[in-house]
Specification:
Elements: H1 2-13, E1 15-21, E2 27-35, H2 40-51, E3 58-62, E4 65-66, E5 81-88, H3 93-96, E6 99-108, E7 115-116, E8 123-148, E9 166-188, E10 193-195, E11 202-205, H4 209-215, E12 218-226, H5 233-241, E13 244-257, E14 261-271, E15 274-278, E16 309-312, H6 320-374
Parallel strand pairs: 1-5, 11-15
Antiparallel strand pairs: 1-2, 3-4, 3-5, 6-10, 6-14, 7-8, 8-9, 8-13, 10-11, 12-13, 14-15, 14-16
C-alpha cells in the first residue's frame, strides 16, 4: 500500500512536458513542463491566451480523447512527454451555446448604426414617437333614477298587496375628453450590444428586439400644441351641430439611450455575429453555468425554466434579482390567499352538510309521531 501511495504521489509531482500544436502541425504552446496536479482548464486557458482565443473556443485533444477541463492532467492520463492538439471551432456553438450567463453593463451601438430621435434630436439605440390628437366628444347617456319608493305587501293591512317602485330615465349630456393616435413610428438600431467592460461586447438578441427596447425605453420628449379656437361665423355654426371639438395635438417620444446601464440573463453563445445573449434554444438542463474550473461537463444543470430577461437600470428601477423576488413574494401571497379561500369554502360546505344531516334526522324522528297521531 505504501509503494502504491508513493507511486501515485510521484506521478502527481512529476513534471509533464507538454507540446501543443494545431491540426496543421504548427506549434502554439510549449514544449513546457506542467505539474500533474494542474487542471486541464488551466492548461486550456494558457493555450487559448497564446492563440488569442477565448478559453471556451479551444478544445484540447490527446490521442483521440477530448480532455475534460474539470480534471487534472494525471487524471486524464498525461505523463512524461505528451503531444496535444488544439482545436478551435469555427462556429464554436457546440461549446458556447451551453452557457447561461448573467451580466451587467452598458448599452452600446456601433458608430454609424445608431438612430436619430426626431423630436429630442438625440443619437439613441431605439425610439418611439407618437402624434396624438386631443379632442372632446359630446356624449349622451341615460341614467335610471327612482322617483317613488315601493311599498312592501301587508304594510297597510293583511289584504294590502303593496306597490312597486317607480323610475324615470334621465338624459345626461356632457363633453368627454378623448385621445386618438394619429401617427406612431418605432425605429431600433440594427444591432444593440451590452458592454460589460471585459472587452467582449455581447449582441442582445431577445425574441423581439423592438418590443424589448420599447419596454425598456423611457420618456424623453412631450409637447402639447393647443388647437386654434378663434371664433368666427363659420366656427360658431359648426360648434352648434358638431359632436367633437379639438383641443390640440400632443407629440411624445420614448428612447433607449446609449450608455444606460443594463442587466441581462440568457443563453450566451458565439455565432457568426460574435458573442450574443439570446433567448435559450436548448432545454434548461443543457444550459450550464460556468464555474471557476470552466464548463460543468456532462452534468445536467440544476437550474430550471431558464429564459431571457433584460432590464435597463434607472433611478428607482429594481434589479432582476429584486424583480424575481417580488414575483415570488406575490406568488406566495396568492397561494396563501387561495389556501384561505379553499379552507373557508370547505368549512362553509361542511357546516351546511352538518345542518342538512341534522334536519334529515329531525325529519325522520318526527315521522313515527305523525303516523301515530294520524292513527
Amino acid at each position: 500500500a505504501a509503494e502504491v501511495c508513493s507511486q501515485v504521489v510521484g506521478q502527481i509531482l512529476a513534471p509533464i512536458s507538454v507540446h501543443v500544436t494545431t491540426l496543421a502541425g504548427n506549434t502554439v504552446w510549449g514544449p513546457e513542463e506542467i505539474e500533474g496536479s494542474m487542471l486541464v482548464a488551466d492548461l486550456q486557458r494558457r493555450v487559448a491566451e497564446a492563440m488569442g482565443q477565448s478559453s471556451f473556443a479551444v478544445q484540447l485533444v490527446y490521442e483521440t480523447k477530448i480532455l475534460d477541463p474539470s480534471r487534472t492532467a494525471v487524471e486524464e492520463g498525461l505523463k512524461e512527454e505528451v503531444h496535444i492538439t488544439a482545436i478551435v471551432s469555427r462556429e464554436r456553438e457546440e461549446i458556447a451555446d451551453a452557457l447561461f450567463a448573467h451580466t451587467r453593463g452598458h448599452i452600446w451601438v456601433p458608430d454609424g448604426a445608431f438612430v436619430l430621435a426626431p423630436f429630442s434630436r438625440e443619437h439613441v439605440a431605439f425610439y418611439e414617437t407618437q402624434v396624438i390628437r386631443l379632442y372632446d366628444e359630446w356624449v349622451t347617456s341615460w341614467d335610471r333614477r327612482r322617483v317613488k319608493a315601493g311599498r312592501p305587501a301587508g304594510t297597510q293591512g293583511r289584504d294590502d298587496p303593496g306597490s312597486d317602485s317607480e323610475y324615470e330615465d334621465v338624459e345626461r349630456s356632457q363633453w368627454m375628453p378623448r385621445e386618438e393616435v394619429l401617427e406612431c413610428h418605432r425605429v431600433a438600431a440594427p444591432r444593440i450590444f451590452l458592454d460589460d467592460g471585459s472587452g467582449e461586447r455581447a449582441l442582445i438578441l431577445p425574441r423581439d428586439l423592438e418590443r424589448w427596447a420599447l419596454e425598456n425605453s423611457a420618456p424623453t420628449y412631450s409637447e402639447t400644441e393647443a388647437a386654434d379656437r378663434r371664433l368666427n361665423a363659420g366656427a360658431v355654426l359648426v360648434a352648434l351641430v358638431a359632436t367633437e371639438r379639438e383641443r390640440g395635438i400632443r407629440r411624445e417620444e420614448r428612447c433607449l439611450r446609449m450608455g444606460e446601464e443594463g442587466e441581462l440573463v440568457g443563453e450566451a453563445c458565439v455565432t457568426e455575429h460574435g458573442l450574443v445573449l439570446r433567448e435559450p434554444r436548448l432545454p434548461s438542463e443543457m444550459l450550464h453555468r460556468v464555474d471557476s474550473e470552466g464548463l460543468l461537463g456532462d452534468r445536467p444543470s440544476s437550474l430550471r425554466n431558464k429564459a431571457f430577461a433584460g432590464i435597463v437600470l434607472r433611478t428607482g428601477q429594481q434589479s432582476l434579482e429584486m424583480v424575481q423576488l417580488g414575483r415570488a413574494k406575490w406568488w406566495r401571497i396568492g397561494k396563501f390567499l387561495l389556501g384561505l379561500l379553499s379552507l373557508f369554502l370547505a368549512t362553509s360546505l361542511g357546516r351546511r352538510t352538518r345542518l342538512a344531516h341534522r334536519f334529515l334526522r329531525a325529519l325522520r324522528s318526527q315521522q313515527p309521531r305523525v303516523a301515530a297521531v294520524a292513527a
